[in-house]
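In response to reviewer comment 3 from the previous cycle, which asked for concrete evidence that the modeling workflow produces usable outputs, we include below a single protein chain processed end to end. The sequence was submitted unchanged, and the resulting structure tokens are shown without manual editing.
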Amino acid sequence: MVAKRIIPCLDVKDGQVVKGINFVGLKEVGDAVEMGRKYSREGADELVYLDISATFEGRKTFVDLVGRIASVIDIPFTVGGGISSYDDAARLLDSGADKISVNSAAIARPELISQIARQYGSQFVVCAIDAKNIDGRWTATTHGGRQLTDKELFSWALEAQERGAGEILFTSMDHDGTKAGYPCEVYARLCESLRIPVIASGGAGSVDHIADVLTRGKADAALAASIFHYGEIPIPVLKAELDRKGIPVRL
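The workflow returned the following structure tokens.
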């Protein structure tokens, strides 16, 4: 059985890791490079770095930050935020990122997924989808959740897969930062509809929440931020508990 992955998410603004609730009320929690080093040593399977203000403010994810991260960690990491072209993605991958995550730009120009996948391979492309439940319809958003789109979660995820995305990173905007658990029924439906891995994001507050989304929600990986950043559930403790519950993880 393939091991489930545990992935700390580091939302980055001006080189510092920040955290808020529903993407607002941001507070600095540490240095992006040093926190990455710490999680790598603690047994994280991968890391995700998201420059959460890059798209909104028209800036690019800092290429030099990616290089510094790559020099101190020995696990795969994904970088997203402000990637609006093939050249943006190429600079990040060439600087040491293992994968890139596209969101707003892919919705605006879906062929961007195909372009990057053709050149580097699907395994290098993660399609991030930030969605809100609006009147029973999971609607994709852009610009850090600030703008609604006409894309629907399930159909857009399927299109992204067909265009060459190697993974889907779905964040429930309604659950992000609340520590109230993941919407497992939504993840189960999404995972059943796709043939590529799904990373669950938004709402982790306990070991049981993560166990639920990896089992009942059928997710391939669980991404979380607050519980790791504030030391509420250390990664070694989380993995030991998941192992005790019979969930395959790398110890």
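The radius of gyration is 16 Å. We consider this sufficient to address the reviewer's concern, and the full set will be provided in the supplementary archive.
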